[in-house]
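Quick check before the chapter quiz. The format below is the same one you will see on the exam, so make sure you can read both the input and the output lines.
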Amino acid sequence: MSGSRVFRASAPVRLDFAGGWTDVAPFPVRERGVVVNAAIDLRAHAEVRAGGDRYLLCSEDLGKSLELNGPEGLADTGELGLLKAALRRSEIGCCSLTTRSDAPPGSGLGSSGALDVALTAALDAAQGVQRSRAALAEEAFFLESVDAALPGGRQDQYAAAFGGFNFMEFHTDDRVVVNPLRVKDWVKAELEACLTLYFTGVSRDSDRIIDEQSRNTSADVRDAVEAMHALKEEAVLMKEAILKGDIRRFAATLQRGWDAKKRMAGGITNPMIDNLEALARANGACAAKVSG
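Here is the expected output.
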């Protein structure tokens, strides 16, 4: 494929400051979900080389590669299922598809959602397809949730497609409204100076947590549902704190949101996370939370 045209795309991962999980069904189907997040300077990358007589799939992060002789191999949802799903949704035919991410897999930064967007954008470019940012986010969401059958909400794909700071609303009719926040440069600089992003090296079982949270919402488990409403309220307060540049209020809201999130389902925290949080607080941190 040395003479093949190459199409590349990348999309940013995000930090969810408040409201995360209120975008995960069934909560936004029953009641409006609200999330405040910000894209950061870590990205997921996808590269497509069109042509050839087979499919060559490679995930550099996972250290896995596959060679498939025809489209029938794309039906298997096993290894590199997300890449296979992306090719099933496209009409590009045989090609080489390579992905990588600046963020470690399972980091809680929405890296799979960013990869959804990068994959969709790269394959769109290879096919001459143009979409709005909202349409790109929706296509990327369906790639992950329907074709790849991976559970989750919509905020990751919308954060990757839109970038920047956003106040997102997830309505009961599946409508998503993205409200970009005009954050002053000095506030961005202050947040960059005050925030520390730390990777524990361990990923939680997000599929199981999402399943439990969804069941708790469907069954109207009181503590879990009240926690979801608290997350919504904190998202509104977080938006105000960021726009005003009130860093102390930002920290207090971040902590209250994390305390509420821990009531939604088991496994959201664990002794290692609790110990790290206590260590951070003992050394001057005003607040701590797990992203994702």
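If your answer matched, good. The chain is about 45% helix and 20% strand.
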